[in-house]
Amino acid sequence: MLETARLSLRKPQAGDIPAWTAFFCTDRARFIGGGTDTDAGRAWRAFAAIMGHWDIHGFGTFTFCDKATGQPLGGCGAWFPVPWPEREIGWTIWNPEHEGKGYVAEAARAVLLHVFGDLGWTTAVSYIDPANARSIALAQRLGVARDDAAERPDREDLVYRHPAPEAA
User: Is 21 in contact with 48 (CB distance < 8 Å)?
Assistant: First the structure.
């Protein structure tokens, strides 16, 4: 578990599935494999992969929650499924009413401290669809640099490399 001023970050749990499904079945999830053509079964399987990632790797995507209410707001964390060439930091915010409040940036900064500090990573990337302007803007706010020479899991994705927090 990680904590910030406003957020608690914890392993995903079954109680998060309704909020995740509501997000994953919208157009806002199109950049991560969801979308309006997605059903609850596909959303459930995607969330099961997020939960299982923790058991396979010992790290994964945290659900970040509002400390005051306990409400799950989104996911942020380390991601390294087959066939990703590098370990990734990814993020989602599940409800549009929580966008623009700095929650994802706050969660991402906590995750970066965790992976570079606690897990001892020396590098991390974020793979971002070129049409995902909000995610690109967040990556830039986090101080990343485009790495066009990096290998990517999808030839369309842009690669953003995160500096170690002490170098930021």
Answer: no
